[in-house]
Every structure is written in structure tokens, then in C-alpha cells.
Amino acid sequence: MSSEMSPIDRAKYAAAVKAVDYVQDGMKVGLGTGSTAFWMIKRLAERVRDEGLRVTGVPTSSRTAALAREEGIALTTLDEAGWLDLTIDGADEVDGDLNLIKGGGAALLHEKIVATASDRMIVIADAAKQVAALGSFPLPVEVIPFGWQTTQKLVEELLEGMDVLGREVQVRQMGGMKLLTDQKNHILDLHLKHIGNPRQLAMVLNQIPGVVENGLFVDICDVLILGQADGRVTVRDLDAGAASEVAADLTEPDNIFAEGGE
Ligand SMILES: O=C[C@H](O)[C@H](O)[C@H](O)COP(=O)(O)O
């Protein structure tokens, strides 16, 4: 492993390497978004180049599409692919039931569609993302621009009756403007501190007109791979039962570290 990597990138890279081991020749793979998915794409590209691995990727964001193209990974659309063997993506938080908060990078809508259209979703993260209960990370909710302030009020009203500790809602800004997602929507960040019932919250948020999707991923993740800075990874596979701790194979050519994560 490169000594120039920060400890957090080492942890993300370790998880990414392990996850890419799951990719087999001929697979259709959903490619996640974010700084952890960055390392997964670099590693996948390395296997494509070095082993002649044939994969077709479905990117979950314009950023991921650009990176994958640059790295020489063949891409297609979800509609062309139809159904995927595997999706590998990062997360902002993960709880003990493998429920997730995603969308810190505003890609939650495409990510949820792609992960749901996959036989398996593998989540990769540094170990600090694991929490007892979701909610410390603000929950992203994608809303259409039309009437977004009304939608925000409806979300705030809904939160009054929910099992959460905080209720502040902010529209996400970028460069002094309201952020636009790949679908040209806005993101509301819900500062909830603690989410008592993620399944219920995920369902009721999506019933509000104007809400397109929320960043709670419930019953979607099948395998969790948590990396640590020393290269060890913990794998929790819901199909395989108990968690296992193994060392990822971190031998890699230097060129994978030519640039840092997002
Ligand atoms: O919208 C972004 C995605 O949900 C990311 O997968 C998530 O924010 C985790 O990103 P990172 O790996 O950079 O922490």
C-alpha cells in the first residue's frame, strides 16, 4: 500500500480491494459514487487491464461515469443492462442491520435505483461509518425544484410525529446556490441526530408530494465490507451468516495512486 495515502484512504482502499474480489468475468456491475467508490473503480479498472476481466458498468452519477470512462471500464445504461449482478457503493452511515444513510454526494436517487436492480449490493466503507443507530449524518432527501419550500414544510411537519431527536431541515447549497443533482433536483438535509425507525421514516418521506427519494437504504445492502488503515477488512455477508475479519491483498501497481480520492 502506498505510504503517501492518508489513513482514511488506506481504510477505504482496503475495503474497495476486497469488494472487487467479488466481481467475476462477464458481470454487469453497478458503480457507486463517492470517495470510497473512487478506489473501487480504480481497482476494478486495474483488474480489467491486468487480468482482461470483462465487466460492464452502470454508473450511478455523472462523476462516476467520467472516472470509469477515463479508467477504461466499459459502460452502459441501466435500461440497456436490464438487471445487474452486483453493485458496489459507499455509504455515509451503516447500522447493525445493514441499513444505510446515503446521499452525502447527492447521488442517492440513481444509487438506490441501481442497487435495487442488482442481485447483490456490497457496501464499502471505512470502519468509522458503522454506527449503533442511524441519524448522526444528516439524511439527504431529493426533492423536485417546483414548490420545494412547500415540500420542506411538509417534511418538517412529518418529522414532528416521527421517532427522531432533531428536526432541522436545510436545503443543500453548493457555491452559494442550491445544489442540483444529476436529475436537476434539490437536496434537503434532515438533521435528525437519531432515527428510531429507519424503515418507517423511509416509507413515509416518499409519500410527500415533491419528494423524489430519500437516502435511507433499508433491506438493500447484502454485504458490508469495512476497511481499516492497516489493511484489515471485516466482511459481513447476510447470506453467509457470521462476520469474518480478513486481510485484503493490498499489492498493487504504483499507478493506482497517481491521484487521490474525491
Ligand atoms: O451520494 C453519494 C453517495 O451516497 C456516497 O456513496 C456516500 O456519500 C459515501 O461517500 P464517501 O465514500 O465519499 O464517504
Automatic annotation (TrEMBL):
BP-aspect Gene Ontology terms: D-ribose metabolic process; pentose-phosphate shunt, non-oxidative branch
Record GO terms (molecular function): ribose-5-phosphate isomerase activity
Enzyme nomenclature, EC number: 5.3.1.6
Binding-site positions, substrate: T33, G34, S35, T36, D89, G90, A91, D92, K102, G103, G104, G105, K129
Database matches in InterPro entries: NagB/RpiA_transferase-like, Ribose5P_isomerase_typA_subgr, Ribose5P_isomerase_type_A
An example Gene Ontology CC term for this record: cytosol
Subunit note: Homodimer.
Family matches, as PANTHER family: RIBOSE-5-PHOSPHATE ISOMERASE (PTHR11934:SF0)
Full protein name: Ribose-5-phosphate isomerase A
